Amino acid sequence: MPKILIIEDEAAIRRVLTKILSEENDTYEVQEAEDGLSGIELIKDNDFDLVLCDIKMPKMDGVEVLEAAKKIKPETPIVMISGHGDLDTAVNTMRLGAFDYISKPPDLNRLLNTVRIALDRKELVVENKRLKRKVGKNYQMIGESKEIDTIKEMIEKVAPTDARVLITGPNGTGKELVAHWIHQKSERSKGPMIEVNCAAIPSELIESELFGHVKGAFTSANKDRAGKFEAANGGTIFLDEVGDMSLSAQAKVLRALQENKIQRVGSDKDIKVNVRVVAATNKDLKQEIEEKNFREDLYHRLAVILIKVPSLNERREDIPLLVNYFSGKISEEHGTPAKSFSKDAIKLLQEYDWTGNIRELRNVVERLIILGNKEIVETDVKMFASKQ
User: Fold this and answer.
1) Domains of the chain, residue spans
2) Fewer CB within a 10 Å sphere, N or C end of the chain?
3) pLDDT for residue 386 is more than 70
4) Would you identify the CATH topology of the domain 137-308?
5) C-alpha distances in Å from residue 90, one per residue of 55, 114, 119, 130, 147
6) Which CATH class is domain 3-131?
7) pTM of the model
8) pLDDT for 255-286, tens place per residue?
């Protein structure tokens, strides 16, 4: 729910602005401040999506609020409102970082349009920061087994191309890691990588999530919204658990792959997209095709390159390397000294049946780091990591 702060010393104007925004969109959460000082205190303690700020106010004027707010929450858009507007004031506030400048009395359509654009801009800024943090992560594939070496060689060959890749394997084996490594080593690495967990999104919402929607397309569609394919333009879209996608969504994805075009839900306007598609699944898609749950034509579009990620039980020789890697990372996260694992402890871990694969191993290592002694020995593994 978007949070909007109105900083205005005239109570009547505050009430009018609150009423306008509430009637325009009942999902807006609007708060008020009667002067600049109280407005700044609210900005410090809250994450607002937009601030509407008067310029002429007692105690602390709007320009001072703007300068202070930009230091506290630089990503928050601030729209300045003044009854004493002139060109110099408008230029000055924009130079200081204001999103826009509106004169009193504000034109209703201009005000609402500015609010909508500012909120969309805030959403994009936050999403871009999140994507940059994710792209900045150094994804690594830990292991020297034959199976992992084969995957690394395939990634080196496939990544520089735009070929679509289908990654298969049980849950917890690291399919997402393979997808990220392909993106990092591709020509699209400076663009976004957008992830979509197809299993986590209700079937009635998956099309809107992937392709976006226009205002009024369905009950809760209060405004136009871009989908994941548009967000991934120039980069990579990762369709995780693609085998759980509805047949209706599959048809639209197929069209997007064939024509490099999408349509938002509720619109007949084509939007061109330039994305690389990497998909993953823990299902046997050929079996799903036989059971009429997955389109064969989409399978062949996705599986240009097929990468199978092995279970941990198929690469037990990598467990010592994985334990050492997780031990260092987990100790760093918890701010504790790194702990070593005895040979007997490692040997016992290699003998376990890892039904949860890499994800399960990491959880066990974390438990041992927290509960075990300075050196993790066989008795620690039996006590804290027993599979019985």
Assistant:
1) 3-131, 137-308, 313-384
2) C
3) no
4) Rossmann fold (3.40.50)
5) 10, 15, 20, 32, 63
6) alpha beta
7) 0.65
8) 999 999 999 989 888 999 999 999 999 999 99
